[in-house]
Specification:
The chain is α+β, with helices and mostly antiparallel strands. Helix content is 24%, strand content 34%. The protein has a seven-stranded antiparallel β-sheet. Helix 1 (18-25) crosses helix 2 (137-166). The radius of gyration is 17 Å and the shape is globular.
Length: 177
């Protein structure tokens, strides 16, 4: 029997509508958001083995890490929020780990939700689950897990700052249009 996924979740609130937050974060270069943690958790350094837009279910890519490891991501759900009341989803499965992670986990899954909050706000929920290899649940839950949660919180802060820095401002469209 396979071990259960070990799940981790963080939530952030963006002061923009869901479609704006989604459009800023989802297509972004991951290396600008996931920069590693304390020299223990590696940074994303690049992507390969994909072409075109990374914007629909079935598309995959290889993500490269600063420790020389990599993994394969495949989008399983891509739903951009169409209006202010819609919820957006960006979900992908993670397989083919190499490097240190290949000795701890067999696969992972990431689920991002962009849900409307009070007027003009978005609740961004990022849930990440790892399936530990047999006998590795304790290591994942008690050693890596606390570091992973800090990494996720820090990355969410980076995401929220990127949204603030890149969101359109009132009058921007008129000035450029």
């Amino acid at each position: 029997m396979q071990p259960q996924l070990v799940m981790f979740t963080v939530v952030g609130v963006s002061f923009t509508e869901p479609a704006v937050a989604f459009d800023i974060v989802v297509p972004r270069d991951d290396s600008t958001l996931f920069t590693g943690y304390l020299g223990v958790l590696p940074a994303v350094t690049g992507m390969s083995d994909f072409s075109g837009e990374y914007d629909h279910a079935g598309v995959s890519r290889i993500v490269h890490l600063s420790d020389g490891g990599s993994f394969r991501e495949e989008i399983v759900r891509y739903e951009r929020p169409g209006d202010t009341d819609a919820v957006g989803h960006f979900d992908y499965d993670v397989t083919a780990f190499t490097g240190i992670l290949s000795r701890i986990v067999s696969e992972g899954t990431a689920r991002w939700t962009y849900a409307p909050g009070s007027t003009g706000r978005t609740h961004i929920t990022w849930t990440y689950g790892y399936r530990p290899l047999a006998g590795r649940t304790f290591i994942l839950t008690h050693l890596i897990g606390p570091l992973w949660m800090r990494y996720m919180r820090r990355s969410m802060g980076t995401i929220l700052r990127a949204i603030v820095d890149e969101r359109p401002t009132e009058g921007t469209e008129a000035a450029h249009g």
